[in-house]
Design brief:
By secondary structure, the protein is an alpha/beta fold. The protein contains 12 helices and 13 strands. Helix 4 crosses helix 5, helix 4 crosses helix 8 and helix 10 runs parallel beside helix 12. InterPro entries: Aminotransferase_I/II_large, AspAT/PAT-like, Haem_peroxidase, PyrdxlP-dep_Trfase, PyrdxlP-dep_Trfase_major.
Length: 372
């Protein structure tokens, strides 16, 4: 697979050119409102003094970093606010390649394409480890694939695209593998608020110099356009202490700083949003998962019901997950999903659908009619 070319836009552009109505189940853009406190923060910021419209501190607003640190039970000097989780992952993976010996990045298959694209961009050797039938990585298969040439291992929980979640035991094993091979575990936890199984465990539960956790508010607050993410690096006083300073320097050289009003609004939302907001988001998605999976059953499809996140992967009889077949779904069914082949070899017969649309029921009906 050509991971140097953005794969999502291929399908999105094809769907946009279609001469019929199409339900977009490609992009991971939440369709619900952000927390009220987020909007209130933006409104209040509009009246701020002139100096509040200047550069923010490069590592992020101190008060926001303190809020993040308190919630993640880490010291504030470990937190760097980034331009979404994408930049956080980039800084972590780049830092891991520089700091640790070896030039190999271990990724799961199926893989979120931007991880693989980033590995290509960094000119790293890449090893893919196939997930099991349940969509999860078996830590033992990761251990068998890792070696002293490994410098970075990337895991994502809840997972995009499989919806798998790694519990405390699995995460402990991933951390141990990274430590045993003097590598960095990069744990992308951007979907942590969307845990339906109650099994999610953060890599930060392990106070390890071999762990960076990345996250953002893009999904949990439905604000993908505001681009506020963060990375939590190992303690600057430990053996991997240079990681956070390197990341902060690269962030500054690339972006100077992040958006001050976006960070201000996120901080306000963190301080004022009740747990019920996130609970309602989960309930909404669980209803959509029920609806969509029922339609997949009716269509005779194989699928993994997601434990977390908001994606469903499905395999339809005699209908591989190729770009050509996805284009046929756009043209004939009016539903746009992502081909499994964009995520690697192990799910190349599957198609991924994003349930962040109020038209899930309509899409399910269209797919049922197409495959009947």
């Amino acid at each position: 697979m050509d991971y140097e070319t953005p794969q999502f836009f291929r399908v999105m552009q094809y769907a946009a050119r279609a001469d019929r109505d199409v339900v977009d189940m490609v992009s991971g853009n939440p369709d619900w409102d952000p927390p009220d406190g987020l909007r209130d923060g933006l409104r209040d910021y509009a009246e701020a003094d002139a100096d509040e419209y200047q550069y923010a501190p490069s590592r992020g607003l101190k008060s926001l970093r303190e809020e993040i640190a308190a919630r993640r039970d880490v010291t504030v000097d470990r937190v760097v606010v980034t331009n979404g989780t994408g930049e956080a992952n980039h800084l972590a993976m780049t830092g891991g390649l520089d700091h640790f010996s070896g030039d190999e990045i271990v990724l799961t298959d199926p893989v979120y394409p931007y991880y693989a694209g980033r590995a290509n961009f960094l000119d790293a050797e890449t090893t893919f480890v196939a997930a099991g039938d349940d969509g999860r990585l078996d830590p033992e298969t990761v251990r068998a694939a890792a070696s002293d040439e490994t410098s970075v291992i990337v895991v994502n929980s809840p997972n995009n695209p499989t919806g798998a979640i790694y519990d405390a035991d699995a995460m402990a094993e991933f951390v141990a593998i990274a430590e045993d091979h003097d590598a960095l575990l990069v744990s992308d936890e951007v979907y942590d608020h969307f845990d339906y199984a109650g099994r999610f465990a953060s890599a930060l539960e392990h106070d390890s110099p071999n762990v960076v956790a990345t996250n953002a508010f893009s999904k949990s607050m439905a604000i993908t356009g505001l681009r506020v993410g963060y990375a939590v690096f190992p303690s600057p006083d430990g053996p991997s202490g240079d990681l956070v300073d390197r990341a902060a320097t690269r962030h500054m050289l690339t972006n100077v700083s992040g958006s001050r009003p976006a960070q201000y609004a996120v901080e306000r939302a963190l301080q004022t949003t009740s747990p019920e907001y996130y609970a309602e988001c989960r309930r909404r998605l669980e209803r959509r998962i029920d609806t969509f999976c029922a339609a997949l059953d009716a269509a005779g499809a194989e699928y993994n019901r997601p434990e977390g996140g908001f994606y469903v992967m499905a395999r339809f009889p005699d209908f591989a997950g190729s770009f050509e077949n996805v284009y046929e779904l756009v043209d004939e069914a009016g539903v746009a999903g992502m081909p499994g082949e964009a995520f690697g070899e192990s799910r190349s017969d599957w198609i991924r659908f994003a349930l962040v649309t109020p038209r899930v029921e309509e899409a399910a009906e269209r797919l049922g009619n197409f495959f009947e």
